[in-house]
């Protein structure tokens, strides 16, 4: 199927694909809904305010975001003429890949097991999940607030970059 995302002329509006997956929509499955009863939930002003606030990350609370050093490493890898070989070498580190998969699964479960969708800890685990998927391909560590690190198995903590909050 094909979905076309219209982007308003207002430059302050974040395009929907960027909100969904930083614009990386290929190879993934998505649930699309036009049911007005479900969509009415998102018309609520309080929900809209929380949703808009969720797209702005206060730099003092950057949990779950790659740090600047790791962003530069990834940028160099992606801009490198050897980017494919470098990504393949990263993915051939089988023990690290297995542990990265365990970390991604743990972050996913910790995010999903929290019933409050706007809970900061749940959101940090959600960002760690997303970041972990990228780290498996490109290397780097997953950023996680230090108070959440204890919920990660000790054997996987070397894959995390703990931030003081």
Strand count, sense and barrel status of the largest sheet are: 2 strands, parallel
Strand tally, please? 2
* SSE succession: HHHHHHHEHE
Dominant shape: globular
Family: Belongs to the RdRP family.
Catalytic activity: RNA(n) + a ribonucleoside 5'-triphosphate = RNA(n+1) + diphosphate
Enzyme class: transferase
Keywords: Nucleotidyltransferase, RNA-binding, RNA-directed RNA polymerase, Transferase
Structure description:
With 165 residues, the protein is mainly alpha-helical. It folds into 2 domains: 1-56, no CATH class; 62-163, no CATH class. It has 8 helices and 2 strands. Strands 1-2 form a two-stranded parallel ribbon. α6 (94-112) runs antiparallel to α7. The termini are far apart. Belongs to the RdRP family. InterPro entries: RDRP_core. This is RNA-dependent RNA polymerase.
SSE blueprint and pairings:
Elements: H1 16-21, H2 36-39, H3 45-54, H4 68-79, H5 83-91, H6 94-112, H7 120-138, E1 142-145, H8 146-149, E2 160-163
Parallel strand pairs: 1-2
Helix pairs in contact: 4-5, 6-7
Key attributes of the depicted protein:
about 160 residues; mainly alpha; 2 strands; about 50% helix
Please give a quick description of this structure.
The protein is mainly α. 50% of the residues lie in helices and 5% in strands.
